[in-house]
Design a protein that fits this description.
Layout lengths: L7 H31 L4 H14 L1 H18 L2 H9 L3 H14 L11 H39 L1 H24 L10 H22 L9 H20 L2
Length: 241
Amino acid sequence: MKFQPNSAFLFTLAGLVILFVIAQSIFFLVRAYRRGKSLGIETAQMRKTIVSTAVFTLAPAVSILLGVITLSKFLGLPLPWLRLSVIGAITYELPAATSTANALHISLSETITDPKVYTAICWVMTLGIFPGLIWVPLFIKKIQGGLLKIKNKDSKWGDIFMTAMFLGMISAFLGMVFSDIRIGLKGWIPIFVLLFSALLMGICGILIKKCGWKWLENYALPISMLGAMIFAAVITPMIGG
């Protein structure tokens, strides 16, 4: 029997987990609403907060949807749907899947039907992000305490330290972008897409700061992602990638 990454069984498993997470969200929403009532907060104010929060989650959800669509091309829909709906992020899931496929010499241009490859990708994606579930509850207080000490001692050095950590994290993903530059102009396509995405994000940042478009803060990431995807779709055939 041929393995199908879009099988009903996988959809059922993913759906059960997501339903459990949704049930948790509803449970804590009800608890928070009741707690607000007990504190004397007006019902209209709480409803307004709930509605505004729900609206502002739509913009980040666009980025997640784009990630699901991107990963579903070769992993099917259930796994990306599960990963990005619960704990994953496209900035991690895609490099993890791509690195595993490259190590196994598998092309991601079509849906994976080899169960061994699919399982390997699942394990890498899971084990790679699992330590965060342990480190955060165990060490977050110590980490935050250390960062606060640095910032309180020297605020400028604290900002430099945080920026350096962020750039270090970003640099870890740049290896994939520059990995194929030796094969010619085709290998530069990811770099062109990266630069175009950065340009769009920079324009959004200027509009937010200079024009006061605060509402754009929640849409900057989806705009840069969508724009970069459209740019990639246009430039790839032109270059011959």
